[in-house]
Amino acid sequence: xxxxxxxxxxxxxxxxxxxxxxxxxxxxxxxxxxxxxxxxxxxxxxxxxxxxxxxxxxxxxxxxxxxxxxxxxxxxxxxxxxxxxxxxxxxxxxxxxxxxxxxxxxxxxxxxxxxxxxxxxxxxxxxxxxxxxxxxxxxxxxxxxxxxxxxxxxxxxxxxxxxxxxxxxxxxxxxxxxxxxxxxxxxxxxxxxxxxxxxxxxxxxxxxxxxxxxxxxxxxxxxxxxxxxxxxxxxxxxxxxxxxxxxxxxxxxxxxxxxxxxxxxxxxxxxxxxxxxxxxxxxxxxxxxxxxxxxxxxxxxxxxxxxxxxxxxxxxxxxxxxxxxxxxxxxxxxxxxxxxxxxxxxxxxxxxxxxxxxxxxxxxxxxxxxxxxxxxxxxxxxxxxxxxxxxxxxxxxxxxxxxxxxxxxxxxxxxxxxxxxxxxxxxxxxxxxxxxxxxxxxxxxxxxxxxxxxxxxxxxxxxxxxxxxxxxxxxxxxxxxxxxxxxxxxxxxxxxxxxxxxxxxxxxxxxxxxxxxxxxxxxxxxxxxxxxxxxxxxxxxxxxxxxxxxxxxxxxxxxxxxxxxxxxxx
Length: 570
Prior knowledge:
The protein is α+β, with helices and mostly antiparallel strands. About 30% of the residues lie in helices and about 15% in strands. The protein is built from 13 helices and 17 strands. The strands form six sheets. A five-stranded antiparallel beta sheet has the order 15-16-14-13-17. Strands 4-5-7-6 form a four-stranded antiparallel beta sheet. Helix 2 runs antiparallel to helix 3, helix 4 (about 250-265) crosses helix 5 (about 270-285) and helix 5 packs across helix 6.
């Protein structure tokens, strides 16, 4: 590119004479520059919106809808087999012990789990006397303190006489003494810091535009916005184009910034952020799900996510691509990309086709990611479940504390790749309860003993039932859900077991995805006998938390000769 010497000269000249201008002049010039930049950017956005609105008025086409992906069509075991103790592989005597694994040392902040039973009132009159065995058992009686007497006041006691007492003599008041504080020796100490008084709490006088509840967290959007009113309007491309046009005239950047602040504070992923947008739209439009989807679509697009809207005779659908496969969610395919019809508070409705457009908003390029990197930081609704099992012919029982609010949050979470669940989390409360209770089963044990003990726990502490039997549909569960729901199946137990092994024993774990069944593989530091899977020249011993009484190296009989798909865990 040729150098524009004239521009360079002007720039140098400007910099040379810049100190000659007053401070106010510099400030004014800078503010004018910012204003011009903002106006240029607004003009750019207006042009984009105008172009997109024109596009929305024309480029619509009807597309067929696919019912949704199915993760595994093979039937799961209904009745679980029980392993014979004699079938367990004989382990070598000398094995490596568990390395010290860090577990939470600090207990999370206590939240009320349940109201304790009231203690009986004891009648002190009926309380038996305390038996004193010796003088040492007697209570120590402190000497009674003398009453405080004000200085320079004398108390005169006059003997009582039968005769009329003579008037008391007048006592002259002494001259007031001047008290001189004795000189104190300096003491080496830090000067006392003055504690600043807290500033008075100012009442928030900002105007509330939308206020909704997000799992016991109040989400408040401040500002003044003239949201479009679409009551009674038929759902068609003209109505949708009009909605985008009216929304573009609002200060939507402020709404997005406030919503993103909640996303960060609550530690939400992409799905959680869009859930907030949907709840805001649902609140603004008084429960109208069609309008809530339109609101979410607009805000999602302006947040940089690739999203589109679709409609049929009665419904509006939010369509978004995903970095992860989503199962049992209706979708359509455009340009070899799946666009899933997302629902946030209900099961997906069945429909065969819808109208949508082929293009997308120019500045929306991000793809929604359903990975779960942390537990959402939402208010605690603590519950507990007693877990009882037997290990090495000894009964073990403890209470697992969990956050019911997290269970509710994931009620309608789309089922996605198995890897997401294997790499998922526990809430700090549940993690602390489980790891501290299970630590004695691992500490000081060999790796093989520790893993076998954890297998016994997951196999026997939870009741088994397939997802179809419990929910009527397939559902992968996070550890918090596994503790809450009365039943769990093979993949739920595998997610749960893998988490415990990684946290408590510190060994590498992979998922083993068989047709109709899920187990785990554990990489030990010893060469152990039994069933195993090799992946990338690494040996993983089969560990099945659903095969009752099975120890490491024991695969279910029907899967011994089946090669599973290996799910790597980060």
